[in-house]
Amino acid sequence: MFFWLYKHIDPHSHYVPLLNLMRYLTFRTGLSLFTGQIVVGLMGNRFIDWMRKRQGKGQPIRTDGIERHVIEKKGTPTMGGLMILCGMLVGTLLWADLSNPYVWAVLLVALSFGLLGFTDDYAKVTKQSTAGVSSRIRLIAEVLIAVVAVWLMVIHFGLPTAPDHGLSTSVAFPVFKKLLWNLGWFYLAFGACVIVGAGNAVNFTDGLDGLAIVPAMMAAGAFGFIAYVVGNVKFADYLQVHFVPEVGDVAVFCGALIGAGMGFLWFNAPPAKIFMGDTGSLALGGSLGAVAVATKHEIVLAIVGGLFVIETLSVMIQVSYFRLSGGKRIFLMAPIHHHFEKLGWKESQVVIRFWIISAVLAMLGLATLKLR
């Protein structure tokens, strides 16, 4: 909104000198971070108390999982992802360029995936069951939303036959600066898989207090920097990465995500006063996937968000081996963070060590910008 005001008030007339600061993407990104944090902080305890009254028994806890979770986490309200979504939305709408289609494509994914997650959380709370909306229906809806978002980004960037040599529908590989794989219109399916996969990967990771939100913020920080670089022709040329015009404003969204995440962590830190639920995890993961597609760094997402990949693979391996072996398990419990709890690690040990892994992976992902 403020960027719109800047563009529509002649900056040379100096009626509102402070609006000239809107020219700087770093300034707007910083303020979106601050705004997101303030919004969530102001919602804070009042929202949590309201949710606790509305939900009664809170989020259902798996009785076949970690025994102490049933006791310690019983009655904790869920749907805290609404706080995160509010922080992201306000921070982005106030400080981003609202004429930028990449911003709207990412917001589309965040809000739509958040709505799907909310529907799932609502079903779990009302039924007091860990089984929410049908996984098949939810997956179909996620794919449709993701395809629309990718289509919007492809159409804006340029069709496969455009002078960009098909970059809009190509997969760029890290390290190999000139290697592109043009998928044509099959890129819609690939991009949708990235977004849906990221959404569900964060959803699998969200199982302990503070476990998912910090790695999501780290990934958002890394991709905020990537968006800033690939959206600037000089930096993109210097680092020899593919230049994506106008994508820089996605950094403002990443800033709002980080700020909202910081505000939410204040209340989600152990012992959590509220869980983000599927409302938050699907929105966060889907957003990161959409940002990766917008910046043409889909493969780098697998590095930066490597912790989410590990969590997802642990579930896939566990389920596959269980079926093939007739009931045997590789892990004591999946996702893998529960495996370490079963081994005797304290919850805080699992969370903090996984944060460390996420930080290392985020730095490795950023290193691919220079390794060419």
**Dominant shape:** globular
User: What structural category characterises the helix and strand content?
Assistant: mainly alpha
The chain-level mean pLDDT equals 88
Strand element count: 2
* Low-confidence segments: 159-164
Strands ordered across the widest β-sheet? 1-2
Q: What series of H and E elements makes up the topology?
A: HHHHHHEEHHHHHHHHH
Distance between the termini: 38 Å
Helix share bin: 55-70%
Biggest pleated sheet: 2 strands, antiparallel
Strand content: under 5%
- What value does the Rg take, in angstroms? 21 Å
Number of helices: 15
Topology:
Elements: H1 2-8, H2 25-55, H3 67-72, H4 81-95, H5 101-127, H6 135-157, E1 170-172, E2 180-182, H7 187-205, H8 213-230, H9 233-239, H10 250-268, H11 277-294, H12 298-304, H13 306-325, H14 336-342, H15 347-367
Antiparallel strand pairs: 1-2
Index terms:
single chain, 372 residues, mainly alpha, two-stranded antiparallel sheet, globular
What can you tell me about this protein's structure?
66% of the residues lie in helices and 2% in strands. By secondary structure, it is mostly helical. A two-stranded antiparallel sheet has the order 1-2. α2 packs antiparallel against α4, α4 (81-95) runs antiparallel to α5 (101-127) and α5 (101-127) runs antiparallel to α6. Residues 159-164 have low confidence and may be disordered.
Quick summary of this structure?
This protein has helices at residues 2-8, 25-55, 67-72, 81-95, 101-127, 135-157, 187-205, 213-230, 233-239, 250-268, 277-294, 298-304, 306-325, 336-342, 347-367; strands at residues 170-172, 180-182.
